Amino acid sequence: MKKIAASQVETIAKQIAPGKIEVTLSNPLNAPVAFFNRVSLVDAQSGNRLLPVFYNDNYVSVLPGEHKTITLNYDAGKIKNNPVISISGWNLKEQAINIK
């Protein structure tokens, strides 16, 4: 069985409105495919998923030289702490991304 090289996907998360976050996954041109990436909204301190959150897409693959944007919608009044974005994939170790 062959293994996929580690992903080099770059993730940027922006708060675009109260309760709305835009997450952009960018894969460099000469990098391996970033395969089956999962985005989650999590509590920064505990690491627990925050629910309910609605995603316009998820579990996405990003080909070399491409980018994908995922929009998250949630009830901002129900989330007390500053959340972060968690991303992980088939060939990407889980990472926590601060929201700008």
Verbal overview:
The protein is mostly beta strands. The protein is built from no helices and eight strands. The protein has strands spanning 10-17, 20-26, 34-43, 53-55, 60-62, 67-74, 83-89, 92-97. A four-stranded antiparallel β-sheet has the order 1-2-6-4, with no helix packed on it. A four-stranded antiparallel β-sheet has the order 5-3-7-8, with no helix packed on it. Strand 1 (10-17) and strand 2 (20-26) form a beta hairpin. It is elongated, with a radius of gyration of 14 Å.
Strand fraction band? over 45%
Alpha-beta content class: mainly beta
Side-by-side strand order of the widest sheet: 1-2-6-4
Percent helix:
under 10%
Report the span from N to C terminus.
40 Å
**What is the chain-wise order of helices and strands?**
EEEEEEEE
In DSSP terms (H or I, runs of 4 or more residues), the helix count works out at: 0
